[in-house]
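Below: protein 1.
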Amino acid sequence: MDPASLRVPRGLTFSRLLSITSKSPYAVKALCELALCGASVPIPIGELARRRDIPQQFLEGLFATLRRAGILRSQRGVKGGYLFARSPSEVTVLEVVELLEGELGAGEGADDEIWAEAVGALRDVLAKTTIAQLAEGEAQARGQAMYYI
């Protein structure tokens, strides 16, 4: 069936209300890997991409956005790569998601009570979860010690 031929019932619209693309999960995975590395030296983006099975060019675009926002810093050259500009314990998942996707709940329908409540609950969970917490959880699940947090 052709998606253009789908009819939306009157009064319903599609919107970006709760739109999260693959950008955010990939970025969070890569940031967790960076935190797990205990990065006192820059980690090459190719290494992070390989470890998390993320297309390197895609990750480069995501990390460029996070670098411009002050979450990451980069170092060029043979020993280049990425490091956190701020502690992973200060970087929330909500901050990453909204940098990459735009503000959650900013779409059409955000004023409807049920959707506002759903967006609020999602924002609360993402706002109280840091990259450090996620990385620590992964380290515990793998049975390895955390060096950075």
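Below: protein 2.
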Amino acid sequence: MKLPAEAGVPVALGTPPSGSSGSPFLGWHERGYLPHFDAPFVTQFVTFMLHDAFPVTRRREWEGVLNEPEDSQRRRKLEAWLDRGHGECWLRRADLAALVEAQLRKGDGQGYQLQAWVLMPNHVHVVVDVWATPLSKLLKLWKGASARAANLALRRSGRFWEREYFDTLIRDGEHLKRAVRYTENNPVKAALVAERKAWRWGSAQWRDQYERLPWQRAGAAG
């Protein structure tokens, strides 16, 4: 698979804290079907999903989505596939959605900054300012702890999350707005609620009348 050029990658839209963990970043790399970008101080739109969101019995259908050569087209087809709600859709359970969201927000403002997030029945969207910890390590942190807790609640063992994930590098302010809008409107698009702030498991409900999250309000007050 041909990877995008690394030159001209924008720096993050969010302002990182001082200091650096010295963690290694991989730049453009590939694992499985998909290319990933891994760099400090960038903003990423990330999607990760439950392990059965792409059922083996329907491989002929979803494999075509993953092999779509054009990035934006592949993303649209991927989102449409996920919104059909294949698999067990464990994140429909309030207790499981709560523990996954808690894990996402646990390090918010410390090791990274969440610009937006939403938990759908079988997948999660996150718009995140990556600071000094590689995106791959953030995902391992979020998925590892939540998988253990979820499996305990479900009284099961085995994989909870799909190993692979999808990430898109945010290019500029307009791209960021579109990614945030898509993320928070996903429950409406999937006909789960009529209005984005009615969805319990996402950042939309935390926005004020000026569309600011709590950390953005605190920054404006300071």
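The helical segments are 59-66, 71-83, 94-106, 135-154, 173-189, 214-221.
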